[in-house]
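Exercise (ungraded).
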Amino acid sequence: MELDLSTQKLATHENLLEIRNLRKWFPVQKTFLDQLLAGKVNYVRAVDGVNLDIRRGEAFGLAGESGSGKTTIGRLAIGLAKPTEGDVVFDGINLNKINEEELRRMRRRMQVIFQDPMASLNPRMTLGDSVSHGLKIHYPQRDDEHREMTLAIFEKVGLTPARYFLNKYPHQISGGQRQRVAIARALITRPELILADEPIAMADVSVRALLLDLMVQLKNEFNLTYLFITHDLATAKYICDRIGVLYLGKMVEMGSLKDMYQHPLHPYTQALLAAVPVPNPLLKRTQPMPAGEIPNPINPPPGCRFHPRCPFAKEICTKDEPELLEIRTGHWVACHFANTFLC
Amino acid sequence: MPEVKEVLISIRNMTVSYETRLGAVSAVDGVSFDIFRGEILGLVGESGCGKSTLGKGLMRLMPSQGSVHGEIFFGDQDILKFTDDQMRDFRGRRISMIFQDPMTSLNPVQRIDEHLIEAIQVHEPQTNKMKALDRVKKLIERMGIQSNRLSSYPHQLSGGMRQRVMISLGLVLNASLIVADEATTSLDVIVEAKLVDEIKKIRNDFGVSILMITHNIALVANIADRLAVMYAGRMAEIGPIEQLFANPLHPYTQGLLACVPSIEIKDNENLYKMPGEPPNLTHPPSGCRFHPRCPYVMPVCKELDPKLVEGVPDQFVNCWLYQEQPVVNNPESR
Amino acid sequence: MKEIPQHPEIQLPKGDSVPQWQLDLDKAGWLRRALLARKWYGGDWWFVVISAIILLFFIVIGALPKWFAPYDPRAEVGPSLLAPGEPPAAFVFLTRSDSPVKEFKEVASSENNVGFVVASPASQALREALDELNAEEERQNTGIRYQPRPRRFDTIEEGLKALEDGEIDAFIEASATAKSIIGKYKTLKIADTLREAAIRGFTLGTNQIGQDIFSRLIWGTRIALMVGLSSALLSIMFGVPLGLVSAFSGGWLDRTLTLIMDALYSFPGLILAIAIAAVLGPSIMNIIISISVLYIPTYFRIVRGQVLSIREELYVDAARSLGAKKITILWKYIFPNVIPSIVIIFSVNVADAILTEAGLSFIGLGLPPDVPDWGIDLARGQDYVRRAWWLITFPGLMVTMVTLAFSMLGESLSEIMNPRLAEL
């Protein structure tokens, strides 16, 4: 039984999501006395000027380590947080310019799958209620169909027998099943955009492939667009069409799967890919890792933010911040010496 | 990989059981294996397989409602028969442990040098403070931390450095075995790669054995000499790493290796989708605990437990495919 | 790596089938679950059961006092200060052997002197006998009044000596004592019984007015539970919504309310209750109000703290991302997770309310003095600790037991209400 969701046909933009000059700075809490004496407030520059477009129907992977800002960008992209500067445009609608009620209505079209399924499900709501809550909010007048739709979506994500799961609580099922419930909850309102924030990081290794497969199948079946946030470049490869790599709040490289994995042009991307362990004892890593660790996002290094750790850094890197330029078609890099890596 | 295979620790039939609200759970069920001197042994498994419990059981760091049975021989002494005093002397000096979260395993109100000097003074009380400080300085510099960081507090160091301090706590007393329980799981991938390199270097420099407990099989592929795979509290397979990767015998190992993603781009590459989930140990499956998920399941697998036997030379596997199967009466009775 | 075949019984990519033991467990009825709970919760299960039984016992007593209480708690049904179970003793009066007196009323006129040991039950027996005689005379409207002059002696020997010497006309003493001592006094005789012995005593004795302590305890339960539960419920009705609203809206409303509540909270409980009770005056309703004010800040603080922490949880974010309205989030996501803490505080609250009420009555600012109440009993009994220990022991025990039962319930509930522990 399907609800008529022809409202979806109103959307006409090719880019489902557009992000322009996005910045999110968090003020560092200081005591009153400090503020008085020091004068200025320090900010954690979680996201510091990011541009990206996501086409309808593609899976865009946002990769980075801790402090890169990937989770913050995700939350800004679906309006769970307000940017300090910059615009988020969803299907032609600027999220900054609509009021709260309109934003709430738009939530039907963009849903989230969080990292920790146990924490993202209300421990006091049955699974059936948790999943159908989206329907209650956005289609309240069709409440006789809600139960059927919930059962149908349970079947679709592989939770069978569906009736069994309707009245269960999150702590009564296993971890993999919980993540399926989270996926079901995200899909039931037939959204267009899904923000997947490290959805399989907490699942068991043997279960991850199943979940990834499920997400790919659902994407094809429902024509979904994914913004897939991850720290694990190996799993990103199985679901994403394009990847963007973030470092300390800025995008350093962005391109298609093939370009990024086979011809990475930014030294940080190269290091990230080299650092991922390969399950083959005969292949030992030869590339040295960049020195040091990720610096404090309150005071990022001047010029190119990666320069203190970059093995190829030259003087210009300490002064000029490189722009994200399209070095080849569809392949953007922010590095003064990206050309030297082109083979 | 040192050629001389001298056994450092010999674990025989180790069983660790807990009393939980849902009944008795044997988190580790009759596991036997050896750790050789100077080797890096990777212990891999998913949630509930018992690998962390085994690591803690080795150090007898069990909570009050858990109990350890079996025998753990260090040299010719059975650790499980040690008195509390003997065990306290043993921990830190012979076996040392690194935990997952370095922030909570270091005392936040103690400086780094105080941590290390205290470790020395507890176990070797006759060492005077200057000598201890000297030893500590030398060790820290070998770990790649500048000695002026010794007077910092744990929260002033980064995650990778804290883990290296934890490793130093093990090395400062010349422990023979370091148990690294998911030591790199909470670190970023680049820091993790560097730490893993560090661990290998430490083994080469100091000759210390390392038991790397992790859920990430690719991680141990790069540094371990041997690999042990656990499933649902039992040892599924154990053997030299290159041999095991090239020819995994246990269906679980095969499945596990086939479902690990890799960053190489190949056409038509599909991950193996293992059905089911790791079992809940309060109600483990009968017989071989992997049988609900095994593509080669046979009637005997549902009834009886296999034993760990040598499938091919040097590689031990716990599966009915490689053992004489006893005749099962009424296979249809289930 | 070679291709791995599929498991013969499981088809991909349908995810996990539900294991048979879980499906079977669902068929178990509630009784089996309750019995299984003993295994799950271990020691806490016993705690809940014991405290629930004790509380049920108290609630039944409180709800149906007439069934349990043998006497009216206000009626003076027996001699005062009777020990538990002791039947009221027989009393006799002694005269000189040669006296012609046959009935007590002959020596009970205002010209007679009647002696007894000071502060002994004999004085009360005398008084009761006189009351009885006087009541009889009033009924017959004769206008006669019996009021002999009482003479008090330190010991029975002195009194009997005075009787021998003619200073007094009669001496009152317990029958048993008199019989044992009469042999030594040749010139005296036991004239007549003053009061018959009763067959049955009072279960827990009587207090100084002669009220049955057992009945007072039963009726006191009713008052205690009424006051305890009502004030707790009143506190919840005010404290919880204020806490919810304050935490959820934040800003100046939150700051103002927190300030007010902190000010209230900083008062020592009993003193605040005394102040309010003194202003409002003694009545059951006023006591309930003054005690409930005491606990409103506690509910406010706990609820507010819980809401603030639950607001940061991931499932609240998930609800926001679904598009839920703020009020829906508060009602369906935050409030149900706050309920466990409320229940726990409720139990402790009732216990504390009962104690506070007893304390107020003890001081005299509590219930009106004719209401049977443990606090009043405790207050009145303090002077009699050595002579009549039963006056304060039993009310004290009741207060302790009820408080204990509620506290035990609260503690064990805190373990059990955690949904993660309800794993099957």
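Further reading is listed at the end of the chapter. For now, observe: Residues 7-94+175-262+269-333 of chain B form a domain with the Rossmann fold fold (CATH 3.40.50.300). Chain B is about 30% helix and 25% strand.
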